[in-house]
């Protein structure tokens, strides 16, 4: 289910600093019934399928993610940082992403024909011609330029790009309230990562929170994202047009070196 070793974890690193992951503490809930180690609960897997099916129906939306992350020092001490991103989306082929943290601010704008990467602090932007869906754009940016788009999993849930057969354990962990909404809480293990997702209850689930734990690191750093949805956004199509501010120069974006 986690695409290319967790794009959400990459989001924390892209927006904040290398090595950042996050941690949060949820309100205590009634304990779920214990399960055998590595048990895959079919209902927990079905919940992911239902989530993907609903996500595929969303054609125009605005979504914001606030991420907190941990950077583990050499002595084991953890430092927490925060970042955020807002996506304006019109499927199949338009997206604008605003990414910000104390360390950086960037924008990505795609109008279906041209993708623009804008860095205000450097007063520069780069453009690349591209045609395809938002999901295809995300793949191309990552493979060709090493550019990670936050919340990219939102565009692949429910597709062959997010297979479920690699999940090693899956469980229903009860329910929680996330920003006033009742959510079902699920926990999964896949490869070197443990991850949890809170999705709204009902027939049209949406992800409201994700927690990822990196088990490759003995310190078990985590990334936490709280996700806010607007399914009736007021942005105009002009949001996908980039007009360079005065004094901003165009620069070339350099592709990754191939071996």
If you had to describe this structure to a student in words, what would you say it looks like?
This protein has 259 residues and is mostly beta strands. It has one domain (7-22, 41-250): Clam (outer membrane lipoprotein receptor (LolB), chain A). Helix content is 14%, strand content 39%. The protein is built from three helices and 13 strands; from the N terminus they run H-E-H-E-E-E-E-E-E-H-E-E-E-E-E-E. The protein has helices at 7-15, 42-55, 134-145, and strands at residues 20-21, 60-72, 78-90, 94-101, 105-110, 114-119, 124-129, 169-178, 181-190, 193-200, 207-214, 222-230, 249-250. Strands 1, 2, 3, 4, 5, 6, 7, 8, 9, 10, 11, 12 and 13 form a 13-stranded mixed beta sheet that branches. A hairpin with a 6-residue loop joins strand 10 (193-200) and strand 11 (207-214).
Question: How would you describe this structure in keywords?
Answer:
single chain, about 260 residues, mainly beta, outer membrane lipoprotein receptor (LolB), chain A, 13-stranded mixed β-sheet, 3 helices, globular
């Amino acid at each position: 289910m986690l695409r290319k070793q967790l794009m959400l974890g990459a989001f924390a690193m892209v927006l904040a600093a290398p090595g950042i992951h996050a941690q949060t503490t949820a309100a205590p809930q009634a304990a779920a019934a214990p399960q055998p180690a590595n048990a895959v609960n079919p209902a927990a897997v079905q919940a992911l399928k239902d989530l993907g099916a609903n996500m595929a129906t969303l054609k125009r939306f605005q979504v914001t993610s606030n991420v907190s992350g941990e950077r583990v020092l050499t002595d084991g001490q953890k430092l927490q940082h925060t970042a955020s991103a807002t996506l304006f989306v019109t499927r199949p082929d338009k997206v604008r992403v605003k990414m910000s943290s104390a360390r950086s601010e960037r924008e990505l704008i795609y109008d279906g024909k041209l993708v623009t990467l804008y860095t205000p602090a450097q007063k520069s932007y780069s453009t690349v011609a591209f045609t395809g869906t938002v999901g295809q754009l995300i793949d191309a940016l990552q493979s060709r330029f090493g550019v990670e788009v936050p919340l990219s999993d939102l565009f692949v849930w429910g597709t062959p790009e997010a297979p479920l057969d690699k999940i090693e354990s899956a469980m229903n962990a009860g329910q929680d309230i996330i920003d006033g909404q009742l959510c079902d809480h699920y926990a999964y293990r896949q490869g070197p990562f443990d991850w949890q997702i809170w999705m709204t209850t009902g027939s049209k689930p949406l992800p409201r929170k994700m927690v990822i734990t990196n088990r490759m690191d003995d310190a078990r750093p985590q990334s936490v994202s709280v996700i806010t949805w607007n399914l009736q956004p007021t942005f105009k199509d002009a949001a996908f047009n980039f007009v360079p501010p005065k004094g901003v120069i165009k620069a070339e974006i350099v592709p990754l070196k191939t071996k």
